[in-house]
Design brief:
By secondary structure, the protein is α/β, with parallel strands linked by helices. Helices cover about 40% and strands about 10% of the residues. The protein has a 6-stranded parallel β-sheet. It has a two-stranded antiparallel ribbon with strand order 1-2. The structure holds magnesium ion (MG).
Length: about 270
């Protein structure tokens, strides 16, 4: 809790939890990521006619552009975003994901606002959170379509727009019209759409690149899937299930709020006697 100097007003440190979905709300070991990668490679071969070094290109584009899709658009491939998503995500074995009552209880017990922030399309996000049984735990959601509205689907930006893009990963690389994490403009749009104050928001993601941008923009950061803290990371959790042990402050506000004043006095008096 933060305390305002000279006043008795207590302000919560956080107003919002911002959460990635894939490999954050469920473990990477589920197998979904591997299947997703296979589908992307198949799309590149079967739909785009790429034949050479598909796996290497896929990994390189993911690394340089945040998503392989953003990279494919940058290097000149044009395709329908919905078709891409239904090929890559629509065929995933979602049955690998099981209901997670532990996570559901954790999320429901936190009283502050909870917002999803994913590079994936909204159908995929909806299917994942439904399989995990946590679809009623969130107040808002930022997905691919939130940042890349259908009006802009498959339409390349003008030269002037591309010159102004702040999500250009590297001045030596071609720019992408796709807006996605880890680039700053994705976060800035998400803050506007979901009315997020980054200084009062804690962001959970499994990608260190996503967390580093987040940290530079003022968000508090939690690396999920690792216990190693590093640059850009305020907290590191092996699993989202460990959030209560690592971040008790998310619950302290509730515990203070629900304890009546008279009870607080009684406890303090008893302890002091
Ligand atoms: Mg992720």
């Amino acid at each position: 809790m933060d305390y305002e100097e000279g006043q008795h007003v207590q302000k919560p440190k956080y107003e919002c939890l911002l959460l990635d979905v894939d490999d954050t709300l469920y473990a990477k070991s589920s197998g979904i990521a591997v299947e997703c990668m296979k589908n992307i490679e198949e799309y590149m071969i079967n739909k785009l006619g790429i034949v050479d070094n598909v796996r290497e290109l896929c990994a390189k584009l993911y690394k340089e552009y945040g998503t392989t899709m953003a990279g494919l658009r940058a290097i000149g491939y044009n395709f329908d975003y919905d078709e891409y998503h239904s090929f890559v995500h629509g065929r995933l074995p979602y049955e690998l994901l099981k209901p997670d009552p532990v996570l559901r209880n954790l999320l429901h017990s936190i009283s502050i606002r909870k917002v999803i922030f994913s590079n994936a399309d909204k159908k995929h996000v909806a299917r994942v959170i439904s399989r995990l049984g946590i679809e009623d735990c969130f107040d808002d959601s930022i997905c691919f379509e939130s940042l890349n509205p259908p009006a802009a689907k498959g339409v390349a930006k003008t030269e002037d727009q591309i010159k102004d893009d702040s999500h250009k990963p590297n001045p030596m690389l071609p720019s992408t019209p796709v807006i996605c994490k880890p680039f700053e403009d994705a976060y800035e749009q998400a803050f506007k759409i979901a009315n997020i104050n980054p200084q009062k928001t804690i962001f959970f993601d499994d990608s260190i690149r996503n967390l580093q941008t987040a940290k530079s923009l003022g968000l508090h950061t939690v690396w999920v899937g690792s216990s190693q803290r590093t640059n850009g990371v305020d907290h590191a959790l092996e699993s989202i299930h460990n959030m209560k042990e690592a971040l008790p402050e998310l619950w302290e506000a509730i515990e203070r709020d629900i304890m009546p004043c008279s009870e607080k006095v009684a406890v303090e008096t008893y302890v002091g006697a």
